[in-house]
């Protein structure tokens, strides 16, 4: 049986995931009076194009900052507005720190890490976050930037997030890891020589994407089905366990009790760079799917395809989405086209 979406009315305490400590916060989402509906992919006439964070034009950056400013302002005007920044950040806490139980299993926490639902869950999460930002500035083309730490040009902390006067800033970060420091994709690496770090990073990327992977679940993560225990880290895919976690820990503040913000599941999405970090994870999923290999890239197990989650969309409507519906490698994946725009306008 596939993982079912949680019942928001039963959401409870969140715990720190490694120690089990009770966290002093309520990260439960607002309850929707009208329940949820199944999400329908809207018609698409143009693709949104995500860019590397170092490559945004001043205009694009200005729009991104304005959208984030408006999203943060919603926290003040209505803390229960699911589009507000704190509510958006809390989604990560609720789905990752045991606030949600698995539907029908009151003693089992729901967890979206270290299994095959990691990529689809985070893709949907970014998808709605991006649509909300776009709708707050009325820009249907708005696209998140990605932090391409897999490429030497992107291996520093992205400068656009390091301006204290910007809504993209977060003060809970390791202040030694601002530019020109080079991020290491090895967890808590002590190396300081940039040339060495870059060459280590490139071999990590090769191993996680190609050399160390012989099946789809080795990259994506092992099966996680209804009734299963919270998966341990060892069941996660190569990229999730490796470079992805290393970046989280590298950015978080080592002087905070739990390496906040980016370095802990419960607080990670309070740092706006979380969404650029995960845009890159999302991009690397697509790149991996495009690499020709002897093994099959597509997981056809219904328990993967039908695993489902709930999110609020840009109209504050609670919607249910399925893992398989955002996996572009699926044979049944059909981009929705607006007929009047002709064939090249097809997109996801
Ligand atoms: Cu849900 Cu990078 O983690």
TrEMBL record:
Using the record's annotation, list all stretches that form the Tyrosinase copper-binding domain.
113-130, 271-282
Chain intervals with Polar residues compositional bias: 327-339
Highest taxon, organism lineage: Eukaryota
Family of this protein: Belongs to the tyrosinase family.
Supply the name of the protein: Catechol oxidase
Which start and end residues of the full protein are shown?
73 to 420 of 850
């Amino acid at each position: 049986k596939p993982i079912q979406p949680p019942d928001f009315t039963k959401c409870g305490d969140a715990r720190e995931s490694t120690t089990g400590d009770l966290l002093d916060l309520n990260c439960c989402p607002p309850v929707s009076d009208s329940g949820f509906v199944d999400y329908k992919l809207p018609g698409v006439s143009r693709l949104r194009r995500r860019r590397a964070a170092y490559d945004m034009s001043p205009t694009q950056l200005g729009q991104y900052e304005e959208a984030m400013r408006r999203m943060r302002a919603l926290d003040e005007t209505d803390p229960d507005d699911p589009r507000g920044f704190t509510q958006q950040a809390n989604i990560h806490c609720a789905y990752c720190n045991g606030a949600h139980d698995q539907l029908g299993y009151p003693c089992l926490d729901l967890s979206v890490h270290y299994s095959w639902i990691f990529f689809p869950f985070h893709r949907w999460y970014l998808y709605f976050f991006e649509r909300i930002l776009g709708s707050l500035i009325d820009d249907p083309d708005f696209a998140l930037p990605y932090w391409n730490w897999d490429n030497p040009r992107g291996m520093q902390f992205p400068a656009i997030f390091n301006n204290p006067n910007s809504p993209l800033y977060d003060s809970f970060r390791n202040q030694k890891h601002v530019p020109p420091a080079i991020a290491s994709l090895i967890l808590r690496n002590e190396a300081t020589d940039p040339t060495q770090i870059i060459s280590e990073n490139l071999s990590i990327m090769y191993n996680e994407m190609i050399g160390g992977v012989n099946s789809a679940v080795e990259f994506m993560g092992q099966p996680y089905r209804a009734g299963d225990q919270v998966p341990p880290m060892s069941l996660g895919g190569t990229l999730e366990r490796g470079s992805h976690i290393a970046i989280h820990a590298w950015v978080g503040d080592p002087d905070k009790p739990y390496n906040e913000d980016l370095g802990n599941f419960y607080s990670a999405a309070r740092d706006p760079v979380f969404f650029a970090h995960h845009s890159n994870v999302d991009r690397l999923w697509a790149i991996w799917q495009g690499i020709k290999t002897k093994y099959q890239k597509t997981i056809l197990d219904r328990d993967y395809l039908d695993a489902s989650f709930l999110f609020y969309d840009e109209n504050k409507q609670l919607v249910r989405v399925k893992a398989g519906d955002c996996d572009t490698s699926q044979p049944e994946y059909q981009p929705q086209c607006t007929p009047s725009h002709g064939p090249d306008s097809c997109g996801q």
